[in-house]
Design a protein that fits this description.
The complex is a heteropentamer. By secondary structure, chain A is an alpha/beta fold. Chain A has seven helices and five strands; from the N terminus they run αβαββαβαβααα. Chain A is 40% helix and 12% strand. In chain A, helix 1 packs antiparallel against helix 5. Chain A starts with 9 loop residues before the first helix and ends in an 11-residue tail after the last helix. In chain B, 69% of the residues are buried. By secondary structure, chain C is mainly α. Chain C folds into two domains: 509 residues, no CATH class; 45 residues, no CATH class. Helix content of chain C is 71%, strand content 3%. Chain C has 23 helices and five strands. The radius of gyration of chain C is 26 Å and the shape is globular. The N and C termini of chain C lie far apart (58 Å). The relative contact order of chain C is 0.08. Chain D is mostly helical. Chain D has a domain of 219 residues. Chain D is globular. The model of chain D has no long low-confidence stretch (mean pLDDT 84). The chains are: A alpha/beta, B mainly alpha, C mainly alpha, D mainly alpha, E mainly alpha. At the A-B interface, helix 1 of A face helix 2 and helix 10 of B. Strand 1 of chain B pairs parallel with strand 5 of chain C, so a sheet runs across the interface.
Chain lengths: 181, 307, 621, 495, 124
């Protein structure tokens, strides 16, 4: 992949630099992975030194953490939270479950591949990933941001129809108000 | 009209300084908090980074005109109050050149009311977003305000009574003349005001207004991007304003910027320290807290002042 | 013909005409009322500069009417608000029945208010006072709902006040032999009244009822909230000021400038009364504020808020220094303006939506932007936040209290005005902010004749926020009538006796500049990407609200505060009154058991009475 | 024709006998003749009042025996005032009840005869100068009042009438006893003469006589605790008779009491007793009225309370107070009769006569409700209605007498009065629900009567000078006792 | 005090008058029977009338008529006024009693009782 960093304008560079060093995370504690977030953010691993801090609402958040398997029911919520986040936004998916369903691969009500429903920037493997891995994942995201490659929101918008089709396929009762975001 | 130009320049300088100091203090707090918790913590410039990021973010939505105005109310209030507050001691050399602004045209009670201006505007904006959490946060914030205003006002009344003036410059000048700071000549009032400042800064234990897990950060829960950025700026300026006001009123003001920084920082550490060691109060507990010992101290202060 | 008599006559005959015209068409009375108020107002403003007086005699009592500066000050309130309210009223009352009686009483009360302030003798004062009372009472019960709850209390409390006043009046007459106000003041100067304190206190009680001072306020919330909004603005704005008018006369002319300040006892008692009154005002303000912020009904909230505001005014008058009186009168005018505007705005909501219950309404800001604007401006003025005119009055009040040494009172006042932010926010949020109700999606802005009066009032608030001197001028003249000399004022600079000042022009300019800067920055930065969305589009922690759901937070709005202040809410004065009333009724019920219904018992009474009288009277005669 | 006060007595007595005969000629005459009598009352009242302009009083001697030996009728400004008032109210009652029992003329005949007797008796009480005659007239009033109270064939009417009779017979017995004692002591029955000779009576007897009179007339004047009959009688009598009770009969009782107190006796300290009794009467009555469910009983209690105020005013006894008392009596007569007139329409088809049933009556009977409200406003003394001025003068009198506590008590009771009157107005004008009563539309004559009364109340309220001269004359005449005695005893030759 | 016949008569007349009044009052106040009450009322009246006549009576007096044989009537006549008055009063008392009795009949018809304490549908 081509390194875009050198082709950035000064303004873009500053923007990306600040984005990189200030990641407000929206932790969506779906599965067992949620237990790793506190560990990551508190004294032992101290993610705040990287500029990572929690945000309580999607409006303020930069990063959406999907921490584990997603039931179709929760997927609906995830989609909504994701869509409410403001550009630029990033998604980090935790654990095997978000990659291929993991141990729930044949469950009737979980999704297997998160990428089909919302775009993901970084996957962190493991079941569950330890905080070290999480921080490594964050660093990877930061690199990506700095390079200007984290175009999560744009991807979603461009392929909205595809994502929507996938979402509709899983979520049978799509009774979500479409507020035209 | 070179006076006007200079004044505008001075006003800009004051604003920038207030902004910078406020932001830096926030960063330092974060760092210190992290150290206290045995963490490395972010850099002390982290707040600036956050601000730049917020401004760089796209702001997709707003919830109507009051939502749009909300950050404006805050920054307007912050800038206005800043213009009317003497940043440095009137006798100091720097003051007359750069920081006189409009300080002779307002007094303490005006400032008290002007400081509310921002919160009320913010509350309106938060209300319009339609998020129930915002409204709940606002009600908590306003209730808490009623709580801490009482000791605060008691302290101010003691001050005004003691010095027979409501003008901040005069208060500073009298402290200067007598050589005794208010915080020593009437320690009870100072203590009451100090307790009130805990609530004003909304650090723990008085941070239920924007309880992140419960209320999704309360009033600001629908604001992101540029709105949040402007709010942060306003908040920083306000932090500076409150500290400066305390320094002016209780510590005889500052003659130079370093002195100001030292005094304000020392004051600032009080709520921060208090926050480190305290869990969170519920709103009614917070209000009762302020209506308890701080109010008693304030009344004592007034009695002493009257004597 | 004398203009004063002509104005009174116009209003009273206008009232009759309005009632009669309702027999022809239900639409006519509104226009008749508007025409009458306009004629009266024009007549007044054409001639109020001239010296005017009128005196005549009725069953041997001399009645005098005259205009003076203090009167003119209050006449401004009455006519200003009266004409706007009657303009507003035409559309507001559009579809209601029985407009004839409404407008008749409307005009009667305005006319009698004018009568009160021009009266220079107690008899016409009292007559107009009572006409005002019952005409407003008839409007309170005009809708015929909840009479027992609303009307009776109003009338009973008013009667208590009026009779206290009447007692004082007849006592004065028995002392000085005339009903003339001027003679009374002269007698006070010469210390010619033996029980002056009793008389003054009785008069004060009479005025305090109308000014809704604390133990006598219980009629106010019920009466205000049960009245059609077009009258409530007059009711709360102008009619309650009649209490202030009278209190000003007693507290300032009798207590302060009585010429008896050398008399130690007198000074002591008058000082004591003033202090008690000031504290009552403070307590009124605090408690009423506390009650205002737990209300669910917007009109009730405003009603309690009115009580609180009147509390401030009473404090100002009771303190009685130059600045305090000025602030009280300024607040009186401003209260008339912003409370008038607020009641009009709430009335507009009521007319367009059908209710003023804040738990049922939300998100009207997009439907009724002008109404919102007016409410916002008025609420800011009410809360006393700069740069609107409410701040001017509050500032003067605080300074007056502090410079006069009322340290704890200032804290009480400050507490209540801080708590006032809570209910200010409550009403703005409850009606206009929050998510939009689907039920109210069809709602439109109120018609122009309703909006224009409100906007005029709001603009007045904005202008006087920077240039309060416009209002200071008549106030200063009025204060000179009350006995103050050398009343100074400045167009835009407020100052206290310690020499501290606030320059309002600078304040407004700074706020304006800062606001414009922020506005430009926020609006134009990333303007293309930003768009307005519906208030339903909120982040709800992933939970998905359905279209018809309304998540607006309305119930138990200030529950935490209520919990914290629970001891203050525990004892409700209304409840005490009701308990006393119930107890008395039970006692009366017991008393009337004397009439057993048995004819023989009555015969026994006769004999027993005869015997008793024979025994008792033998010694007496 | 030479008009003299005798016509007041003679004519109705004649008419009463003639009516049954005349009604044989034409049924309608039974209605018309009483009206003519009342009209004639009005005419002679006006003429006699005119004549009083030139002479202090008219003393009419009956059967040629001059005072103090003969029976005489004395028409002073005071009695003229009351007589005119009674004639006026009587006439209005006649107009109002013209359609009374239209279908069946027999009851109407009885009704009008009794009504006429009631009014005549009351006028006789006021006019007579002889104390035994006063007793006789009182009995005429009483008997016709008993009969009228029991006029309706229901069971409650009889009960009320019996109670009234029981207490009333005590009254007559006591008065008779008093007259007996008085006669043994002075040997005269003429009131002027009695007043002259009163100093011969030993003090203890004087007191006993006074107490007997006080209790005896107190029963008619509805003094507490002698007024148990009043609410029953008021509420059970036909509607217009309530007005007659309040407007005429009670005035007669008060007159008798006042005449005795002011003219015959020269006891000091009577004022205090009257004030005390008036106060108690007023307080108890108003308290009872507050808790009353029955509208007419409520009006009755209110009437008692008003009489208490009048008693207090007479007890104070200064010029202003008596002026106030007379003004109060005038207002009470006008307003209370108006209230009774309107109330009887409001309650027309009600069986229980309770206030509860009136909910929303204003919708059906707007005019009557308006009149009732007007009456309520006036009687509680709200300006600019006539009730205000009398109340003001009463208070002025009390204030001049330095009775602050009295003022406060009276005004507190007025608050109660306001509460219960306005509660009724609230019920009538309530829109919460509507009454199930079948309203009866007021007939044209009753509308006329109520309009006249309402207009009078407003006119007197706005321009009290219309009647104050009249009342001033009356009160002067009452206060000026020696003038009365002198005139009665000297002007003794038959004209 | 000499107990001659006239004195005894006088005393007994006065005494019986007072006794009648007291008995009447007793009946009115204590007896529950309506008829008895009416009788009591009549007794009171009768007692009063007797009293009145007795007061007017002079020992050995003559009728107040100036006619031959009664020349000393002017000085020694019985006072005629009480007698005239008593006549009136008796008529009145008669009328009242008649009304009362008619009312008693109606009360009995409607209430089915003649006990006064059971007839109190109007009270308070």
């Amino acid at each position: 992949m081509e390194n875009k960093r050198n082709s950035q304008t000064i303004a873009e560079y500053i923007k990306n630099w600040s984005r990189k060093h200030s990641l407000f995370i929206m932790a969506y504690g779906t599965g067992c992975g949620a237990i790793e977030i506190p560990a990551t953010l508190t004294s032992r691993y101290d993610a705040e030194r990287l500029g990572i801090r929690g945000a309580a609402t999607p409006r303020q958040a930069d990063v959406l953490l999907i921490t584990g398997y997603l039931a179709t029911k929760t997927l609906k919520r995830v989609i909504r939270v994701y869509e409410q986040m403001q550009d630029p936004k990033y998604v980090i998916a935790f654990g095997s479950c978000t990659i291929n369903g993991g141990m729930y691969y044949d469950s009737y009500n979980t999704i297997n591949v998160l990428e089909k429903y919302i775009p993901v920037d970084v996957y962190i493997n493991g079941c569950m990933p330890r905080p070290e891995a999480v921080i490594a994942g964050f660093q990877q995201l930061q690199d990506k941001i700095a390079r200007g490659e984290a175009d999560n929101g744009t991807r979603y918008k461009e392929n909205l129809e595809w994502y929507r089709a996938n979402q509709h396929r899983v979520i049978k009762n799509w009774r979500m108000p479409d507020y035209n975001w | 009209m070179e006076g006007i130009g200079l004044k505008i320049l001075g006003a800009l300088l004051t604003t920038i300084m207030a902004f910078a100091v406020g932001m830096t203090y926030g960063g330092i707090t974060r760092k210190l908090t992290a150290r206290v918790q045995n963490r490395v913590g972010p850099t002390i410039w982290q707040n600036f980074i956050d601000l730049v990021k917020l401004q760089s973010k796209k702001t997709n939505i707003y919830h109507g005109v009051m939502g749009h105005f909300a950050p404006m109310w805050i920054i307007t209030a912050a800038m206005t109050v800043l213009m009317f507050i003497p940043v440095l001691h009137p006798n100091s050399t720097w003051y007359s050149t750069w920081f006189p602004n409009l300080t002779f045209h307002g007094d303490l009670i005006f400032l008290l009311y002007m400081m509310v201006f921002g919160s009320l505007g913010m509350a309106l904006g938060a209300g319009q977003t339609g998020n129930p959490n915002s409204a709940i946060g606002v009600t908590r914030g306003l209730s808490q305000m009623v709580g801490f205003e009482i000791p605060f006002v008691l302290a101010l009344v003691a001050l005004m009574v003691q010095y027979k003036t409501t003008s901040i410059q005069d208060i500073m000048a009298i402290q200067d003349q007598s050589g005794v700071w208010m915080m020593f000549s009437n320690p009870f009032s100072f203590l009451a005001a100090l307790f009130a400042s805990l609530g004003m800064f909304r650090y723990s234990p008085f941070d239920i207004v924007g309880a992140p897990a419960e209320l999704a950060s309360g009033p600001v829960s629908e604001f992101g991007g540029k709105y949040l950025g402007v709010m942060m700026t306003g908040g920083s300026i306000f932090a500076f304003i409150k500290l400066t006001l305390y320094v002016d009123l209780f510590m005889g003001g500052a003659y130079s910027i370093p002195e100001l920084l030292i005094k304000t920082f020392a004051l600032y550490m009080v709520p921060v320290f208090y926050g480190w060691v305290s869990p969170r109060y519920r709103t009614e507990q917070a209000i009762r807290y302020f209506w308890g010992w701080p109010t008693a101290l304030g009344i004592l202060g007034v009695i002493i002042a009257v004597w | 013909m004398n203009t004063l008599a002509l104005i009174i006559l116009i209003f009273f005959s206008g009232a009759t005409l309005a009632y009669l015209s309702s027999l022809i068409s239900n639409k006519l009375p509104g226009w008749v009322a508007l025409l009458t108020t306009m004629t009266g107002t024009v007549l007044f403003y054409m001639s109020f500069q001239n010296e005017q007086a009128l005196s005549f005699s009725i069953i041997g009592l001399n009645l005098e009417w005259a205009l003076d500066n203090y009167t003119i000050l209050f006449a401004h309130i009455i006519f200003g608000l009266g004409i706007l309210a009657s303009l507003y009223s035409v559309q507001y009352m559009q579809n209601k029945s029985q407009q004839g009686s409404f407008y008749a009483n409307f005009l009667l009360s305005i006319g009698s208010m004018f009568g009160i302030i021009i009266s220079k003798d107690f008899i016409s004062f009292f007559i107009f006072w009572e006409i005002m009372t019952w005409s407003s009472f008839l409007i309170v019960v005009w809708n015929g709902i909840g009479f027992r709850k609303n009307g009776i209390w109003y009338m009973a409390m008013s009667a208590i006040g009026a009779y206290a006043m009447l007692t004082a009046i007849v006592l004065i007459n028995s002392e000085i032999g005339t009903y003339s106000l001027q003679a009374f003041f002269n007698a006070v100067q010469e210390n010619a009244i033996d029980n002056l304190m009793l008389v003054s206190i009785l008069l004060l009680i009479g005025f305090a009822v109308k000014a809704a001072l604390m133990p006598l306020h219980i009629w106010a919330p019920r009466a205000y909230s049960n009245t059609p909004a077009s009258y409530t603005s007059v009711f709360s704005g102008a009619l309650s000021k009649m209490g202030v008018f009278g209190m000003g006369l007693v507290l300032i002319r009798v207590f302060r400038f009585s010429g008896l300040q050398d008399n130690f006892d007198y000074a002591l008692v008058s000082q004591f009364t003033s202090h008690v009154l000031a504290w009552l005002g403070g307590i009124t303000a605090a408690i009423a504020t506390l009650y205002a912020l737990v209300q669910k009904d917007a009109k009730k909230l405003l009603a309690y808020s009115s009580i609180a505001q009147l509390g401030y005014i009473v404090i100002g008058l009771a303190i009685g220094t130059k600045l305090a009186v000025m602030s009280a009168l300024f607040l009186a005018i401003m209260h008339a303006v912003f409370k008038g505007a607020l009641f009009m705005a709430v009335g507009a909501v009521e007319r367009q939506v059908g209710t003023t219950d804040m738990t049922k309404i939300s998100g009207l800001i997009r439907r009724m932007p002008w109404t919102f604007f007016v409410t916002l401006v008025s609420i800011i003025a009410l809360a006393g936040v700069p740069p609107l005119s409410g701040f001017v009055g509050k500032w003067m009040l605080y300074e007056a209290l502090i410079t006069n040494g009322n340290f704890f009172l200032v804290v009480v006042v400050f507490f209540s005005s801080t708590a006032a932010f809570l209910y200010s926010y409550r009403i703005l949020f409850g009606l206009f902010l929050g998510q939009e109700e689907d039920d109210t999606a069809h709602v439109k802005e109120a018609p122009a004749t309703m909006v224009i009066p409100m906007v005029i009032l709001a603009l007045f608030l904005i202008v006087t926020g920077t240039y309060p001197g416009i209002v200071f001028e008549p106030i200063a003249h009025g204060m000179e009538y009350l006995g103050f000399t050398d009343v100074t004022w400045n167009m835009t600079v407020l100052s206290n006796v310690w020499g501290d000042s606030v320059n309002l022009q600078y304040v407004s300019t700074t706020i304006g500049v800062a606001f414009m800067l922020a506005l430009i920055f926020l609006t134009f930065k990333g303007r293309k990407g930003t768009r307005g969305v519906s208030t339903k589009d909120i982040s709800t922690s992933g939970e998905i609200p359905l279209e018809h759901e309304n998540l607006t937070f309305q119930l138990d709005f200030f529950k935490p505060f209520e919990r914290a202040a629970a001891p203050l809410y525990k004892r409700s004065i209304t409840k005490i009154y009701e308990d006393v009333a119930n107890g008395l009724e039970a006692l009366f019920d017991f008393t009337r058991k004397i009439y057993t219904g048995n004819g023989q018992t009555y015969a026994i009474y006769v004999v027993a009475f005869l015997v008793t009288l024979l025994i008792v009277v033998q010694n007496m005669l | 024709m030479n008009i003299s006060p005798v016509h007041y007595i003679a004519l109705p007595l004649l008419a009463a006998f003639l009516i049954p005969l005349l009604s044989k000629l034409h049924k309608e005459l039974a209605r018309i003749v009483p009206g003519l009598v009342f009209l004639y009352f009005l005419v002679i009242s006006v003429v006699l009042m005119q004549r009083l302009e030139t002479q202090p009083m008219i003393s009419e001697v009956i059967a040629g025996w001059s005072a103090p030996w003969g029976i005489n009728l004395v028409f002073t400004p005071f009695s003229g005032f009351l007589v005119s008032l009674m004639s006026f109210i009587g006439f209005l009652v006649w107009v109002y009840s013209y359609h009374f029992k239209k279908i069946d003329y027999m009851p109407a005949q009885k009704y009008f005869i009794l009504l006429m007797m009631l009014v005549t008796g009351s006028i006789g009480i006021v006019l007579t100068g002889d104390i035994f005659n006063l007793f006789v007239f009182l009995e005429i009033v009483a008997i016709s009042a008993y009969s009228l109270t029991a006029f309706y064939p229901g069971r409650d009417g009889a009960e009320a009438a019996f109670k009234y009779l029981l207490v009333g017979s005590f009254a007559s017995a006591l008065i008779l006893l008093a007259i007996v004692i008085l006669y043994t002591q002075t040997g005269t029955l003429n009131m002027a003469d009695l007043a002259v000779k009163m100093h011969e009576v030993p003090h203890y007897l004087k007191v006993i006589i006074f107490v007997l009179f006080l209790v005896g007339f107190g029963i008619e004047a509805e003094m507490f605790p002698l007024n148990g009959w009043a609410p029953d009688a008021y509420s059970q009598a036909p509607g217009p008779i309530g007005a007659v009770f309040a407007g005429i009969v009670v005035k007669g009782g008060i007159y008798a009491l006042v005449r005795v107190v002011y003219t015959i006796f020269d006891l000091s300290g009577v004022g205090t007793i009257l004030i005390a009794l008036g106060l108690v009467t007023m307080i108890i009555a108003e308290l009872a009225a507050l808790r009353q469910d029955n509208l007419k009983r409520m009006l009755a209690y209110s009437s008692i309370g008003q009489m208490g105020v009048v008693l207090i005013a007479f007890g104070i006894g200064t010029d202003t107070a008596i002026f106030a008392a007379l003004f109060l009596m005038l207002n009470h007569a006008l307003i209370k009769s108006m209230l009774f007139f309107s109330a009887s329409y409001l309650l027309y088809n009600s069986t229980t006569k309770t206030i509860k049933e009136l909910t929303g009556m204003a919708k059906h009977l707007p005019f009557v409700s308006f009149i009732f409200a007007l009456g309520a406003f006036a009687i509680v003394g709200l300006p600019p209605f006539s009730g205000f001025w009398s109340k003001l003068y009463f208070l002025m009198a009390a204030a001049d007498a330095q009775m602050v506590l009295l003022i406060i008590t009276v005004l507190s009771v007025s608050v109660i009065e306001i509460i219960y009157y306005f509660r009724v107005i609230g019920k009538i004008y309530s829109k919460d629900e509507t009454s199930e009563l079948e309203p009866k539309k007021p007939t044209i004559n009753s509308v006329l009567v109520m309009t006249v009364l309402g207009a009078l109340i407003i006119i007197i309220g706005v321009y009290p000078d219309l009647v104050t001269d009249w009342i001033h004359h009356a009160s002067d005449a009452l206060v000026n006792k020696s003038n009365y005695i002198q005139n009665v005893l000297t002007e003794n030759l038959p004209r | 005090m000499d107990f001659d016949f006239q004195n005894i008569v006088t005393i007994s007349v006065y005494g019986s008058a007072i006794a009648l009044i007291l008995i009447g009052i007793y009946a009115v106040l204590i007896k529950k029977h309506l008829i008895k009450i009416v009788i009591g009322m009549s007794l009171v009246d009768a007692g009063l009338h007797l009293l009145f006549v007795a007061i007017g009576y002079i020992n050995n007096g003559t009728a107040p008529i100036f006619s031959p044989g009664y020349e000393d009537a002017a000085t020694n006549m019985v006072d005629p006024v009480p007698q005239a008055l008593v006549l009136t009063a008796i008529v009145i008392g008669f009328a009242v009693t008649a009304v009362a009795l008619s009312l008693v009949i109606r009360l009995y018809k409607h209430h089915g009782t003649v006990r006064i304490d059971e007839i109190k549908s109007l009270k308070w």
